[in-house]
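User: Um, what's this?
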Amino acid sequence: MNNYAAGQRNHTQRLAVIGLLAALVFVSSLISFDIPLAGGDSTRIHLGNTFCLLAGLITGPVGGGLAAGIGSFLFDLMNPKYIASAPFTFLFKFAMGFLCGLIAYAHNRKGERLSRNIVAALVGSFSYVILYLGKGFIENVLYGQSLQANLAIIGTKAVASVTNALIAVIIVIPLGIALRTALKRAHIWERIH
């Protein structure tokens, strides 16, 4: 097989892995429970963020950002409650996967240092929390919420978001190690990088 054909096959395998990770983000976002908030709003605890981070750890910044953004965007599009937020969700989750991958892959390490992966997962998770809560705060101001009501709603969302962030970090580190090991044994890891 010539170099061009081998490169095309590797590119196709990388796209397939990104697509699979986007599907895992979508499906894992379905595994959730809602927490009602004042005014009929709600927030939720879910596993989608875990797979957004996993995408960054496995495929690096761009692949991780795309898988996280696309999977989360599709989840929002399928739920009338979240459809209006879908573009923001794509951008915020893209940033989450991108930052996680950027830190994990810094200095050409390809997500192979445990300490860097922990920092990457924490930064990715908490960057999303900040973006999500910032958007919520601004929306509440635009809808005319009083500052006190706005802070109460954002406070409840912050508890759920930080819980999601910590759960994602705790789960993704051993999951990322296990998946990386499996991909290396199957000789897929080197083909997607």
